[in-house]
Design a protein that fits this description.
Structural class: alpha/beta
Number of strands: 11
Number of domains: 3
Number of helices: 10
Shape: rod-shaped
CATH architecture of the largest domain: 3-Layer(aba) Sandwich
Largest sheet: 9 strands, mixed
CATH class of the largest domain: Alpha Beta
Distance between the termini: 46 Å
Low-confidence stretches: none
Length: about 290
């Protein structure tokens, strides 16, 4: 049979009496009478079946059992207070700050964000679109989407997407006459992001070609250039998937190369607010819904 826990008010009275060494001073601190504290302590000792206090003149002194119990009670009350403060902060601050690359924000998040706003209309989402690695403390960011290996210090990271690279082009590029074989790519304008070279894809496809001279600092600009018919882009799957579904881009060939990194959801270790947790869970739900 499960033992009933002592009332929270009794535990608060006990913690105060144990810390102050006086029922009278404990009564003053928690705004009750001396008699009320004395009655609570008698009931607590009777319920636990062990003496918690000894009299020493006008003061009360903890027994050995009482001292151990007081340490546990104090720690438990502290945890309850921290939990309450967490809820208060979450309720009072309905805004969350989210950091991600411009490409992911524009191509993956924005077409879906309306669904989150419909579900949680009172939560404001402040977007920080940057290719710079966010400093959670300095930039006051709650949650980030990062592309990497998930080994950043002092954060918790949850894998969100495995990524791969493959060539894409507008169906209108070159008046619709797109290359039929990887070996034909050398005749066309190729494009890439500055940190995502073609070389690994060339090796997998079995072709010997040079890196293109048209390089973009941002994957969103790269994919938009492909949509506009400027050339053939080596695209990351998460950035291109929306335009592929919408018919603005077509994938060339079946050859793809797995990225050495993945897309992660990242937040400060042990400090994910309730609203940021709602946003994280929604992102995971969106990913699952489309898998």
């Amino acid at each position: 049979m499960t033992q009933r826990l002592p009332p929270l008010g009794t535990l608060r009275a006990f913690e105060a009496a144990a810390r102050l060494g006086s029922f009278s001073r404990a009564a003053e601190e928690i705004s009750v009478t001396h008699g009320a504290v004395s009655h609570q302590m008698r009931s607590l000792q009777r319920e636990l079946g062990a003496p918690l206090f000894m009299r020493n003149g006008r003061r009360v002194v903890l027994t050995t059992v009482g001292r151990h119990f007081a340490e546990r009670v104090r720690a438990a009350l502290q945890e309850l207070e921290e939990a309450a403060q967490f809820v208060r902060r979450s309720k009072g601050d309905r805004a969350i700050s989210v950091s991600m690359t411009p490409g992911f924000a524009a191509r993956w998040l924005m077409p879906r964000l309306g669904r989150f706003m419909e579900r949680h209309p009172t939560i404001a989402v402040n977007m920080h679109a940057s290719n710079t690695l966010v400093d959670f403390e300095r930039d006051q960011v709650d949650l980030a989407v990062r592309f990497g290996r998930g080994t950043w210090p002092d954060v918790e990271a949850q894998k969100f997407l495995d990524e791969e690279f493959f060539p894409v082009a507008s169906p209108r590029f070159n008046r619709g006459r797109l290359p039929a074989q990887p070996s034909e790519l050398g005749r066309f304008q190729l494009m890439r992001s500055n940190d995502e070279p073609w070389a690994p894809w060339f090796r997998v496809a079995g072709v010997r070609l040079k890196e293109p001279s048209l390089i973009f600092s941002d994957s969103n600009l790269l994919v938009q250039a492909a949509v506009d018919g400027r050339g053939i882009a080596l695209a990351r799957s998460s950035i291109a998937e929306g335009d592929l579904r919408g018919g603005k881009l077509v994938r060339l060939f079946k050859v793809a190369v797995s990225a050495p990194s993945a897309t992660y959801l990242v937040w400060p270790k042990g400090r994910l607010s309730a609203n940021a947790a709602l946003f994280r869970d929604w992102l995971l739900e969106e990913r699952q819904r489309e898998s």
